[in-house]
Write a structure and sequence with these properties.
CATH topology: Gyrase A, domain 2
CATH class: Alpha Beta
Shape: globular
CATH architecture: 2-Layer Sandwich
CATH superfamily: Transcriptional coactivator/pterin dehydratase
Number of domains: 1
Radius of gyration: 13 Å
Number of helices: 3
Distance between the termini: 26 Å
Number of strands: 4
């Protein structure tokens, strides 16, 4: 791989998803994850946990919260694509739901 700061190719992203068993998909140049919950309060609780990870890692996903669903998009905007940092943060977020 190209390191923490280099943009990964689509193939490298797909390999990372498979290798790390990530519950994310490659969509429109972003890592995307949709998590469903029983209600809005549970969705917000998940959002808050994701926000804590994002702050700790200093790497922030785009987040959309609706009644029972949270949609996350990870991309390193400053690099113009997905980097290893996005993969690392995706894996940390996946651990919240295990």
């Amino acid at each position: 791989m190209t390191g923490l700061e280099g943009v990964l190719s689509a193939n490298e992203v797909r390999l990372a998803i498979e290798r790390d068993g990530l519950a994310w998909k490659l969509e429109d140049g972003c890592l995307v994850k949709v998590s469903k919950f029983a209600d809005f309060a549970s969705a917000v609780e998940f959002f808050n946990k994701v926000a804590e990870i994002a702050e700790n890692e200093n790497h922030h996903p785009d987040i959309e919260v609706s009644w029972s669903k949270v949609t996350l998009r990870l991309v390193t905007h400053s690099k113009g694509g997905i980097t290893q940092k996005d993969v690392v943060v995706a894996a940390l977020i996946d651990r919240l739901e295990r």
